[in-house]
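To: structure desk
From: M.T.
Subject: fold request, one chain
Message: Could you run this one when you get a chance? Sequence is below, nothing fancy, just the single chain.
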Amino acid sequence: MCNVTLLIVIVLCIGKIGAQNASFQDLLYLINTTRTYVYASSYLTYISGDALTCISYLMRYLTPTFLRGELCYNVGDRGSSREIFGELGNKSNTNEPFMKPYFWPGVSTTAPKYLKYYDNESHCGVFEITMDGKRHCELHVRNDSINKKDPFNILNTSCLTSYNEICEERKPLVILYSDICD
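Reply: Done. Structure tokens follow.
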């Protein structure tokens, strides 16, 4: 009986460690490639009462401390884009990689997005953001990893499992990506 209990504890501990495996190199690999979508989120962002969907970004310039790129999104049925720039780095006391984009739409104050999990095979990552004292999550997926014929198939990957684990499954999963995003 003790062996079974010990095995369960070890598996649970490994699961927790696995969901916190992102490095600064992972952050660079996720955002410095093709267009990346904010595939899902634990919150909705609004501009003038309309929810934003199809949020994506393509970095044009990156250094170890700075980012500049194009952010695209839909407001209702209208597509919009804007230039974004911001900071990159590691949180000093935890060494967690983060990006802190300025002028993210619908956000009144700039909040760092901490990369908590990255899957190199599925090319997706889970970010944690604190806004107005509340913890939120975002699931970012590289464009080349989304099955355009069935865009919801990403929900079966390790990223969704890690999203639920990091967000403690009590946060909603709002899908922001659909086939109209391309």
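Reply (cont.): Strands lie at 36-41, 46-47, 50-62, 66-75, 78-90, 97-102, 113-119, 124-131, 134-142, 174-175. Let me know if you need anything else for the meeting.
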